[in-house]
TrEMBL record:
It comes from the Bacteria. Gene3D superfamilies: NAD(P)-binding Rossmann-like Domain. This is SDR family oxidoreductase. Signal peptide: none annotated. Keywords: Oxidoreductase. The lineage of its organism: Bacteria, Pseudomonadati, Pseudomonadota, Alphaproteobacteria, Sphingomonadales. InterPro entries: NAD(P)-bd_dom_sf, SDR_fam. It comes from Novosphingobium decolorationis. Pfam families: adh_short.
Length: 264
């Protein structure tokens, strides 16, 4: 797919971190970018800086997401690229000690279900809504491509750690969406891929730098090479390559400096 001013993209979670870097990288190619996020101040700031638009969207709410897509399409036309970075989840071990009572407790079904909504269901929601719009659009180029969907999984999908039973299994579910969805959409010329980032220097991780310098150094040292956390712009570079390279389809791309997560 040719990325340029004739192409529109939607980036969820575009107010910060991996989403922000992805929005900036696509805009640098001339793509018209719409940012979906709950953080109005940061999202509007990023959108203004790249000449895009901001839309307050709650990925847990179907009506909110559909309204966001409608507003983005009204502003930029049908998106040809969807980059889904937003997520919400709750952590915890399957069974652990209650700190107050000392009794055994389990991660509640409700907390797991909330994580499923915020990771797996939300990924299907935004991908399927994007695909529906792409399906009705005119094909592009000699391959007849109509769009590219890029979902964000995680290295935890393959190396889930202690306390990541929800996060790890549901990010694995995101990878599980990719092949069947790509096959569902192959006759429409819509590609589907996922990215599995390792430990990246996003705002939550950067807090360790000031809060716990020893932990920050240990995180950097844990990466085989290069011995540092990933940079959001490196994730974004992969987003641009996947969006632009029409032969990349039905794949999960791991970007992690060769790290393999230990149990803890």
């Amino acid at each position: 797919m040719e990325l340029g001013s004739a192409t529109s993209a939607i980036v969820t979670g575009g107010a910060s971190g991996l989403g922000r870097a992805s929005a900036q990288a696509l805009a640098a190619k001339g793509v018209k970018v719409a940012i979906f996020d709950l953080n109005e101040e940061a999202g509007a700031e990023v959108a203004a800086s790249i000449g895009g638009t901001f839309h307050k969207v709650d990925i847990l709410d179907e009506d909110s997401v559909e309204a966001g897509f409608a507003a983005a399409r009204a502003a930029h036309g049908q998106e040809r690229v969807l980059v889904h970075c937003a997520m919400v989840a709750k952590g915890g071990k399957t069974v652990s000690r209650d700190k107050e009572t000392g009794a055994w407790k389990r991660l509640s079904t409700q907390d797991y279900a909330f994580s499923a909504e915020g990771i797996l269901v939300a990924s299907y929601r935004v991908a399927s809504i994007a695909a529906l719009g792409m399906a009705a659009s005119d094909p592009l180029g000699e391959d007849g491509e109509r769009g590219a969907i890029i979902l964000t999984s995680s290295a935890a999908a393959q190396d889930g750690q202690v306390g990541q039973v929800a996060y790890g299994s549901l990010k694995a579910g995101v990878n599980g969406l990719v092949l069947p969805m790509a096959r569902d959409l192959m006759d429409l010329g819509i590609r589907v891929n996922s990215i599995m980032p390792g430990i990246f220097a996003t705002p939550p991780m950067l807090r360790f730098k000031d809060f716990n310098a020893k932990m920050w150094d240990a995180l950097n040292a844990s990466v085989p090479f290069p011995k540092r956390l990933g940079r959001p712009e490196e994730f974004a570079s992969l987003v641009v390559e996947i969006a632009g390279n029409s032969y990349l389809n039905a794949q999960g791309f791991r970007i992690d400096g060769a790290i393999r997560m230990p149990p803890r």
